[in-house]
Design a protein that fits this description.
single chain; Serine Threonine Protein Phosphatase 5, Tetratricopeptide repeat
């Protein structure tokens, strides 16, 4: 359902770019998001459909009547709503405007990094992720994101280092332990991978369906120790 919604939103966004019937398409997009439960984003898009006839292109997409763009926090919150609705280009613009209006925070850079990752722009994502860590070096989720962003055969040790920092900051972080298991598996370090997977399971990781098909864990699945580990934590009904 989420993939289908994302595809429909992307198609509408492309039509909006190339069509003169912007108002009608924004209304269609708003209705789609509303039916999908993305209420805040739907209301924002509906507002755009009401503004589009009279707006100055230089003010888009933030003009509201004759008012000037709101301050940073409001723009940041709207960026979150757009990102949640897969309206990534709008989200990027909101976060950038938020920074220009005083909300140049680690949260803004972290969210921008996540959006750029979703847009398959890893270099931009890494830049903002590292900036988020400069502003708040104790924010564990940013280290997890950084590990995923630099994940490549030649940079796997960097991914491991990033996730180790996340674990040090948050010893209960299930996602960091799981990602460590994946990175160690890709590096061929079986003992470290098994130990990290056991920690992830101990901390509450329970997506066993994904564990059994995650390509990052392919090197582990042939070992009896891995099978026994999964069986010991996997519910009998799963």
């Amino acid at each position: 359902m989420e993939d289908l919604l994302r595809d429909k939103v992307c198609l509408l966004r492309e039509r909006i770019k190339t069509s003169v019937e912007g108002k009608a398409l924004y209304r269609e997009l708003s209705d789609l998001l509303l039916r999908a439960g993305k209420i805040s984003a739907a209301m924002n898009i509906l507002e755009r459909s009401l503004e589009i006839q009279n707006e100055d292109p230089a003010d888009a997409p933030f003009k509201s009547g004759s008012e000037k763009p709101p301050e940073g926090k409001w723009l940041f919150d709207r960026g979150l709503e757009y990102a949640d609705a897969y309206l990534y280009e709008d989200a990027v613009e909101c976060f950038r405007q938020a920074m220009d209006h005083g909300h140049d925070t680690f949260e803004s850079h972290y969210c921008l990094a996540g959006v750029f990752k979703s847009m398959a722009r890893p270099e931009d994502a890494e830049t903002h992720c590292r900036r988020a860590l400069e502003l708040n070096p104790r924010f564990a989720p940013a280290y997890i994101l950084l590990g995923a962003l630099v994940k490549s055969p030649e940079r796997l040790e960097e991914s491991v280092t990033a996730c180790k920092k996340a674990v040090l900051l948050d010893p209960e972080c299930t996602a960091a332990y799981y990602d460590l298991a994946c990175y160690y598996s890709l590096l061929g370090k079986r003992e470290q991978a098994l130990a990290s997977m056991e920690m992830a399971l101990c901390k509450g990781f329970s997506d066993f369906a994904w564990v059994l098909k995650d390509p990052d864990l392919e090197t582990l699945r042939g070992y009896p120790e891995f099978k026994l580990l999964i069986q010991s934590y996997r519910p009998q009904s799963a």
